[in-house]
From TrEMBL, chain A:
GO molecular function terms noted in the UniProt entry: iron ion binding; oxidoreductase activity
Keywords noted in UniProt: Molybdenum, Oxidoreductase
Residues covered by the Aldehyde oxidase/xanthine dehydrogenase a/b hammerhead domain: 23-127
PANTHER family associated with the record: ALDEHYDE OXIDASE 1-RELATED, XANTHINE DEHYDROGENASE
Transmembrane segments annotated in the record for this chain: none
Protein name as catalogued: Xanthine dehydrogenase
TrEMBL record, chain B:
GO molecular function: FAD binding; oxidoreductase activity
Entries under InterPro entries matching the protein: CO_DH_flav_C (IPR005107), CO_DH_flav_C_dom_sf (IPR036683), Diverse_Substr_Oxidored (IPR051312), FAD-bd_PCMH (IPR016166), FAD-bd_PCMH-like_sf (IPR036318), FAD-bd_PCMH_sub1 (IPR016167), FAD-bd_PCMH_sub2 (IPR016169), Mopterin_DH_FAD-bd (IPR002346)
Protein name: Oxidoreductase
UniProt keyword terms in alphabetical order: Oxidoreductase
Transmembrane segments: none
Record domain FAD-binding PCMH-type: where: 1-226
Gene source species: Planotetraspora kaengkrachanensis
From TrEMBL, chain C:
Residues spanning the membrane: none
Protein name: 2Fe-2S ferredoxin-type domain-containing protein
Domain 2Fe-2S ferredoxin-type: 17-93
Listed GO MF terms: 2 iron, 2 sulfur cluster binding; metal ion binding; oxidoreductase activity, acting on the aldehyde or oxo group of donors
Keyword Glycoprotein in record: no
UniProt source species: Planotetraspora kaengkrachanensis
Pathway membership: Alkaloid degradation; nicotine degradation
Keyword vocabulary terms for this entry: 2Fe-2S, Iron, Iron-sulfur, Metal-binding, Oxidoreductase
Protein origin, superkingdom: Bacteria
Length: 699, 332, 181
């Protein structure tokens, strides 16, 4: 595969939609206001398991301004698809606390909210089980893990190897449930008319929402249109449609008017997905020089009863380090809990917290510098798949990162550096993220009056896709970016893959390049003449992707953290965070840096704050708001920076790029935890690293 | 939110009268300050008044000097104005520090002094009307005791309720013995802090000693010259915009290495801003040393009866008291 | 307080008030439900969608607007309480067409990603510069009785009421430093 000459790729173009966003003109899903709009508000179950016996719909209908109360007895039927998270209001079953049991539609938000509050729902209650334990008797082996990896893997004889390894680390780590909490709540405006169904939706994939929703309502795809020009963050929670889309469409259908519906922040903790909590046991066997002979990584996770989601927590361990004997596994338990889903680097994020903490423990056990330990265990081919790496620059990230961070001469002794009332420590962890590329379509069009329009149903959820695709198209067309109009965020545009798996730029970029190439060819054939109706070329990349050569393709990185731990209070502050990344060609250094440091900031937040606390008695997540579920605030984020290593990889895609949206979070929490150990001598194996995990111990 | 009538009062008397009239209607009438807690709780369905009497336009919204060097702060004064006031900053720095340690810039621009004192607990069961809670629904039970109480009380709590009072501002006010001026249906009276708030006992639904219809009109800061050297230290789960896990307000009067006088109060540990009287009396007349501070803190915290998930607050509070007092000594 | 504000489930009619609202220099005559927040009035009735709803409980800052020049959370501000105030939203920060220097700095520094927290960040940022100029102390001001200056620690502390889940804080601080310094 050859990469195209690209004068605009690599330039720090300002976001093309920046002016829209800073002036308040950018219109997000809930801000679309068709005429005759009604407001819908969701009512959630207050039991974790059982059945809805009755809903006193009539009495709230007496309230002024109430248009309808919809519940399973009067809701329009939807087709019985497999995804039970979406077949809402179709049965009396309650599978988790917070599941939607009714929707109230009214003339104003105030009336709808009040009616939802007053609506009485009677339940038949059954005992619930919501507590994840590694020894839960319900643990089972899922058929595969997300998206389609083998559940378990084994090479050699890891147990025997651990038995004779001179140095063994055997530790159990845990990560709590975490909620994405994009600042824009999940929202949909639904409108039925003669053309079918229009959804203004907050989604990472207009095409996927259309493909999922159309069959639910028995419509052909062309009769559903999903419009989402601006999306206020997603992080995976808007990757697949959740209940709110279906509910808005159902409600609009029932009342015969356009309906607006948004999950409230509190409701989001039950109905828009979250990252499963994990319990992970990692065992490493090594010789005194730190060379690994065995790696065993076992994960225990939860899923919901209505739908299985099996996070691929230990899959990353299959390719990280060399070792002849190795095993990974995933076990799941179905609990009466909300449905977990993808959250920024599903699998890698919790998995690398455990693996990279264990590597730090091994470095300490062997008395080897943690950077050196990782370099020493660098594989030459993908250790489990045996494939060559298309490119792998982990070692360069570790070395260059160490140099810029000032790692050299680090005293490994924990708990000995003081600055005022703070104990100071530094830590490192590796990161990685796979390169995914998914089939997409795109259209490029030469406009009769000059200029080009490129269309693809991609989503810009803040990644900068609109801007980066503009640059890619400009290069492929050989024109300046100002001559390219990029249209995204609408299912009426050529079908595109999800903004997920850090695959957007690679997938959509491929389609955009091919469409632009096809258009350039067509223009050549016409000697540059653009007909009065314009000239258009369309492509589908499915075939090109099938022809892709087998390689182990991943982006790599190294995270360096410096922390201060208050000796009086145990408060941890991240003083410095530096990420070194090798992710192929960087197309826009400005937006790329934002992506990297944004991911690292979320990793910092995960390390120190984030935890959704299960209320075992009542069966829901207790801390369902942003005052209790803490995410990093501005004051928590001090010196965070990222840089990258130039990487030429011809076996990726026409741009030579790898995904950058997720790798920033991977490894950050481990780097912070390792730094906390270096600062205090205390190993925190359970996230988040809150002061109560330190104060009662040695600090 | 249930529909409500809105009235704006021009002075204290008419506010009290408007509230009484609303209550007489059976609608349930309450005062509205900045609304940062009340509107929040109304949206959660925790309170559902039928009448709101807006008291933010009362004339008592500034700072006046009192005889002897104290200050009288109007109840309608916004938190940010209080914190920025030059006399407050100079005479009672711990009060400014506590106010600016609370909430966010936007909320402090809205919140009033009266409303801040009367804000309600952040216990998550209290805020969730689908669960029992003795404070919200008397007699329904207290799930926090066996459930989530990591950030709840370690001193003075009862079987019925283990909630904490979340205000930062109230902590230095308790340390100072600030006097709360009240205008009620039965006339005017004054209550010195920390006596405004009450321990939960068997009636956790009552946060304070106020009677229905009582309006806070002002808070009087008594003269306390040594409070010019005072400090508020707040420990929290993130660096900013988070409620206190534990906090300390302290003022120290040291002469020749001996503690002449001191004021200490703790936040985040009790149903009330907790005046550390035992520690204060242990310290008066003792040397201003780390050992003496540690001893005083230990005496205060000997009363603590923590629950399984908040026992960490006891050593935390001890450390923070000692450190804050040492900082005050070092600063002098 | 103390429970007296509760009077059980009542099925009452909404209570409305006809008020004048001054937003970005324009006078609007609106009939508002007393329960309506300034945020909902702006977004649902005046189609001023700049102020965003992120939590509706004062916890994220996305709804930040200026009332008489001071930043507040419009999700906890009842509209009936601001009929005599001047409201400025992100749409009103700059005169027609042009960008306010803070808006321009946000674009230049890439101080946002999804853009949803951005209008609130901008209103806050503009107010922060003024608060520091007015000498207001913050939780990180070393000596609250002394003067204050707009350094990075001060910016970070003062901007902490505006959450950004995309993690644009580093660039937000850089943008404010650029404008405020
Ligand atoms: C996200 C968030 C974070 C916060 N973080 C903190 C924090 O870290 N530290 C902290 O201390 N606080 C914090 N707060 C709470 C905040 O300080 C309070 O909400 C605020 O001080 C209440 O003041 P107000 O004027 O808005 O009161 P309101 O909400 O208007 O009223 C509160 C109560 O007081 C009553 N009331 C008001 N004025 C009077 C009066 N004059 N006389 C009698 N009764 C009156 C009302 O009827 C109501 O019951 C936070 C709040 C939010 C939303
Ligand atoms: S601690 Fe108090 S406020 Fe919390 S649940 Fe118990 S009774 Fe309610
Ligand atoms: S919407 Fe107002 S603070 Fe979040
Ligand atoms: S830019 Fe997305 S939340 Fe701040």
């Amino acid at each position: 595969m050859t990469t195209v000459a690209a004068p605009y790729a690599g330039t720090a173009l300002d976001r093309v939609d920046g002016p829209e966003k800073v002036t308040g003109r950018a219109r997000y899903a809930y801000e679309h206001a068709p005429d005759d709009l009604a407001y819908a508000v969701v009512v959630q179950s207050t039991i974790a398991r059982g059945e809805v016996r009755a809903v006193d719909a009539d009495s709230v209908l007496q309230l002024p301004g109430i248009i309808a109360t919809i519940w399973h007895e009067n809701a329009p039927r939807v087709a019985p698809i497999e995804d039970a998270e979406l077949t809402v209001l179709q049965s009396p079953r309650v599978a988790y606390r917070g599941q939607v049991v009714a929707v109230v539609v009214a003339e104003t938000i105030e009336s709808a909210t009040e009616a939802a509050r007053l609506l009485r729902v009677d339940y038949q209650v059954e005992p619930h089980d919501v507590e994840l334990r590694a020894d839960h008797p319900g643990m089972y082996r899922p058929d595969h893990v997300n998206p389609d990896y083998a559940t378990d893997s084994e090479l050699g004889d890891p147990e025997a190897a651990l038995g004779y390894a001179p140095v063994v680390v055997d530790a159990t780590y845990s990560t709590p449930a975490q909620h994405h909490n994009p600042i824009e709540p999940h929202a949909t405006v639904a409108l039925w008319d003669a053309d079918g169904l229009t959804l203004y939706d907050s989604t990472q994939s207009a095409s996927a929402v259309r493909a999922t929703i159309a069959p639910l309502f028995g419509l052909p795809q062309e009769r559903v249109r999903v419009v989402s020009p601006y999306v206020g963050g997603g992080f995976g929670s808007k990757g697949a449609p959740h209940a709110q889309v279906v509910l808005a469409a159902l409600a609009a259908k029932q009342v015969g008017r356009p309906v607006k519906l948004a999950a409230t922040r509190r409701q989001m903790f039950a109905v828009t997905g979250y990252r499963t909590p994990t319990v992970q046991r990692v065992r490493l066997g090594a010789d005194e020089d730190g060379r690994l002979s065995a790696i065993v990584h076992e994960a225990f996770e939860q899923t919901a009863t209505v739908k299985e989601f099996a996070e691929q927590t230990t899959v990353v361990t299959r390719m990280m380090y060399a070792a002849p004997h190795r095993r990974t596994s995933h076990r799941l338990v179905r609990l009466d809990v909300p449905v977990p889903t993808w959250m920024r680097a599903p699998g890698e994020t919790p998995g690398m917290f455990a693996l990279e903490s264990a590597m730090d423990e091994l470095a300490v056990a062997c008395g080897i510098d943690p950077v050196e330990l990782r370099v020493r265990n660098e594989p030459t081919v993908d250790p489990e798949r045996g494939l060559p790496f298309s490119s792998r620059n982990l070692v360069a990230c570790l070395r260059e990162g160490a140099a810029r961070f000032g790692w050299a001469g680090r005293d490994p002794e924990p708990g000995v550096r003081r600055r005022g009332r703070m104990l100071i420590g530094t830590g490192v962890a590796s990161s990685t993220y796979p390169v995914y590329r998914l089939p997409s379509e795109a259209t490029a069009r030469a406009e009769p009056g000059g200029g080009f329009t490129v269309r693809i149903a991609a989503a810009d959820i803040g990644t900068g896709a609109r801007t980066v695709l503009t640059q890619i198209a400009a290069d492929a067309l050989g024109v300046p970016p100002a001559q390219v109009r990029m249209e995204v965020g609408d299912s009426a545009l050529p079908r595109a893959s999800v903004a997920g798996g850090s695959s957007g730029t690679a997938s959509w970029g491929t389609a955009v390049v091919r469409a632009c190439e096809a258009l350039t060819d067509a223009l050549h054939r016409r000697a540059g003449d653009v007909p009065p109706g314009g000239l258009e070329a369309s492509v589908d990349t499915a075939e090109e992707l099938r022809a892709q050569r087998p390689f182990s393709r991943h982006a790599y990185g190294a995270q360096f953290a410096e922390v201060g731990v208050d000796v009086d209070t145990g408060e941890v502050r991240v003083l410095r965070l530096l990420g070194a990344f090798a992710a192929g060609r960087i197309i826009n250094p400005k937006t790329a840096r934002s992506q990297f440091i944004g991911g690292m900031t979320m990793g910092l937040s995960m390390a120190l704050f984030e935890e959704s606390v299960m209320d075992v008695e009542f069966g829901d997540y207790l801390n369902r708001d942003l005052a209790q579920y803490h995410v990093a605030a501005c004051a928590d984020v001090r010196d965070v920076d990222a840089f990258w290593i130039e990487e030429e990889d011809p076996d990726l895609n026409p741009m030579g790029s790898k995904g950058i949206g997720e790798i920033g979070i991977v490894g950050t929490a481990a780097a912070v935890a390792n730094a906390v150990h270096h600062a205090t001598g205390l190993r925190v194996r359970d996230l988040p690293i809150r002061l109560d995990r330190l104060i009662g111990r040695a600090v | 939110m249930r529909p409500f009538a809105y009235e704006r009062a021009a002075d204290a008397r008419s506010a009290v009268a408007a509230r009484a009239a609303g209550a007489a209607d059976g609608a349930g009438a309450v005062y509205l300050g900045g609304g940062t807690n009340l509107v929040d709780l109304m949206r959660l369905g925790v309170v559902s008044p039928g009448v709101l009497v807006d008291v933010t336009r009362l004339p008592s919204d500034g700072v006046e000097e009192t005889a002897g060097g104290g200050l009288l702060i109007g109840a309608a004064m916004r938190n940010s104005d209080l914190a920025a006031h030059p006399l407050v900053r100079r005479r009672y720095p711990m009060l400014t520090q506590a106010v600016v340690a609370g909430a966010s810039g936007q909320i402090r621009n809205m919140a009033t002094v009266g409303g801040n004192l009367l804000q309600r607990t952040r216990c998550s069961y209290f805020q969730d009307v689908t669960k029992p809670c003795n404070k919200r629904a008397p007699g329904s039970g207290c799930p926090a005791r066996n459930g989530d109480h990591r950030n709840l009380a370690v001193i003075g709590q009862s079987e019925a309720c283990v909630a904490t009072h979340p205000s930062d501002m109230a902590v230095p006010l308790a340390a100072l013995g600030a006097v709360v001026h009240i205008e009620g249906p039965g006339g005017a009276r004054q209550v010195p802090m920390p006596g405004l708030h009450r321990l939960p006992g068997d009636t956790p639904e009552r946060d304070t000693v106020l009677e229905p219809g009582d309006l806070i009109t002002a808070v009087e800061l008594p003269p306390l010259p040594f409070a010019a050297r005072s400090r508020y230290r707040k420990v929290r789960d993130r660096a900013s915009f988070a409620f206190a896990v534990v906090s300390v307000a302290a003022a120290l009067d040291v002469e020749d290495g001996m503690v002449k006088d001191c004021r200490i109060a703790l936040g985040g540990v009790a149903h009330i801003p907790w005046r550390a009287e035992r520690a204060e009396s242990a310290l008066r007349g003792s040397p201003a040393t780390e050992a003496a501070f540690a001893q005083a803190a230990a005496e205060e915290l000997a009363q603590a009866t923590p629950l399984p998930h908040n026992a960490f607050k006891v050593p935390l509070a001890r450390n923070v008291v000692v450190r804050t007092l040492l900082d005050l000594v070092e600063a002098s | 307080m103390n429970g007296e504000g509760n009077s059980g489930p009542v099925f009452a009619d909404p209570i409305t008030a006809d008020i004048m609202l001054s937003v970005n220099g324009d006078e609007h005559s609106v009939a508002v439900d007393t329960r309506e927040t300034l945020l909902d009035t702006l977004r649902e009735h005046l189609d001023l969608i700049g102020a965003k709803k992120g939590c509706d409980h004062g916890q994220c800052g996305a709804c930040t607007v200026l009332v008489d020049g001071r930043r507040v959370k419009s999700c906890l501000t009842l509209t009936v309480t601001v009929d005599d105030r001047e409201i400025t939203t992100v749409e009103g920060l700059a005169a027609d067409g042009a960008l306010h220097p803070m808006q321009a700095a946000f674009v230049e520094r890439d101080a946002f990603q999804c853009g949803y927290c951005t209008p609130g960040q901008l209103c806050s940022a503009v107010a922060v510069v003024r608060e520091v100029a007015d000498g207001w102390p913050s939780a990180v001001t070393p000596d609250v009785s002394g003067p204050v200056s707009l350094d990075d620690d001060e910016i970070r502390e003062r901007m902490s009421g505006n959450l950004c889940r995309c993690g644009a804080y580093v660039n937000i601080v850089a943008a404010i430093r650029q404008v405020g310094a």
